[in-house]
Design goal:
The chain is built from three helices and nine strands; from the N terminus they run H-H-E-E-E-E-E-E-E-H-E-E. By secondary structure, it is of the alpha+beta class. It has two domains: 30 residues, no CATH class; 106 residues, Trna Endonuclease, Chain: A, domain 1. A five-stranded mixed beta sheet has the order 1-4-5-8-9, with helices on both faces. A hairpin with a 2-residue loop joins strand 6 and strand 7. The protein is globular, with a radius of gyration of 19 Å.
């Protein structure tokens, strides 16, 4: 008899009699809010957590939506934040290149088009080697 390998989520998430996870009511364990993040995005999520603690924002979401820019072209922002006054703000996290950020030409075009179409402020954020976060608002 072979044993199936199980993840930690299988051991720590209670199941109903039907075999579904109690937290979600479906057959998959609940998704971690940081699942799928790269290291730069994880550091920005930590930064957003400090903003929440300070009361600057009330909530944040990772890759919460997909924005249709044109036929067969979509943009998925990295973060959506809700400020204490209820205003929404979109953040795109990029890797640093010296004191600036890196992006490919096609990604830059998508960002500019999204900034024109999106009803929320769109800001690029990057962290330099001195651990400071820098931002550039595109709209």
């Amino acid at each position: 008899m072979t044993r199936r390998s199980r993840t930690a989520a299988h051991y720590h998430t209670p199941r109903t009699k039907a075999g579904k996870h109690a937290a979600t009511g479906v057959g998959q364990p609940p998704k971690s809010p940081r699942a799928g993040m790269n290291k730069t995005e994880e550091r920005f999520a930590d930064h957003l957590d400090t903003w929440m603690t300070a009361g600057y924002i009330s909530a944040w979401w990772f890759e919460p939506m997909s924005w249709k820019l044109a036929d067969a072209t979509r943009y998925m922002p990295d973060f959506l934040t809700q400020h204490a006054d209820g205003a929404l703000h979109v953040y795109e996290v990029k890797a640093a290149k010296g004191r600036d950020y890196m992006t490919t030409p096609d990604a830059w075009v998508k960002l500019k088009i999204a900034a024109e179409q999106m009803p929320y402020p769109l800001t690029v954020a990057w962290q330099t080697k001195d651990a400071h976060w820098h931002t550039e608002q595109l709209n």
